[in-house]
Amino acid sequence: GAGVSQSPSNKVTEKGKDVELRCDPISGHTALYWYRQSLGQGLEFLIYFQGNSAPDKSGLPSDRFSAERTGGSVSTLTIQRTQQEDSAVYLCASSLLQGGTEAFFGQGTRLTVV
Amino acid sequence: KQEVTQIPAALSVPEGENLVLNCSFTDSAIYNLQWFRQDPGKGLTSLLLIQSSQREQTSGRLNASLDKSSGRSTLYIAASQPGDSATYLCAHTGGGNKLTFGTGTQLKVEL
To answer: What percent of chain A has a predicted confidence (pLDDT) above 90?
Structure first.
């Protein structure tokens, strides 16, 4: 595709359920980022993948959060036992290389935990 | 801890005015600095990328400058239009490679 694609665009889930959020980066981009944006707040870094290197998981808020990137392309962010404070927009971005190249964002997944 | 601050937090201007948005950062070893806009309920749209070896970039009515020594970047918007109304975010990548975002400037351009 032409840009970063995220699915679903909206997700409403009950507290305690698990959810999976998907990100399709731009073809050929080796770097992939996940961020979270709570209502009225700034962007919070979650996790960063670069090629075959070990991901930078330093931003994951708890062990309920995990992410995978299969085959260096599609990434899935999984939140287990969702809590109301997990409600936010989850944004994915990709860039051609690490560091000094332009990052492009998807439209995000709006997660609402009820 | 790396910090990125944007001033002002909010700005309202009449259509046609030229304006400057400011971004300050504490990490002097940045790789690049990128400006984004975010419309309500939407993702981020990349506006300009300035590599660490560059001092400025231009795209249409937008001009972004970078001064690594002082830890500052500015986004200049010429002849502002109502369609420019959005939140503007600056972000840089440093040694950790992840993007570190500023606090954002909410811009409203009024008719």
So the answer is: 77
Mapped onto helix, strand or coil, the DSSP state of residue B83 is: helix
Measured CA to CA, the distance from residue B51 to residue A28 in angstroms comes to: 21
Across the interface, whether the CB atoms of A104 and B46 are under 8 A apart is answered yes
Q: pLDDT tens across A40-95, in order?
A: 788 999 999 988 888 999 999 999 999 999 887 999 999 999 999 999 999 999 99
How far apart CA A93 and CA A112 sit, in angstroms, is 21
Evaluate the omega torsion of the peptide bond into residue B8 and state whether it is cis, within 30 degrees of 0.
Answer: yes
CA distance linking residue A110 with residue A8, whole number of Å = 8
- Scanning every residue of chain A, which has its alpha carbon at the shortest distance from the alpha carbon of B87? A42
> Does A96 lie at the interface with B, CB-CB under 8 angstroms?
no
Cβ separation B100–A56 shorter than 8 A: no
Cβ within 8 Å, pair A99-B44: no
Supply φ then ψ for residue B83, to 5 degrees.
-70, -10
> Can you name the residues that pair with A101 across neighbouring β-strands?
none
The pLDDT-based confidence of B45 (bands split at 50, 70, 90) is very high
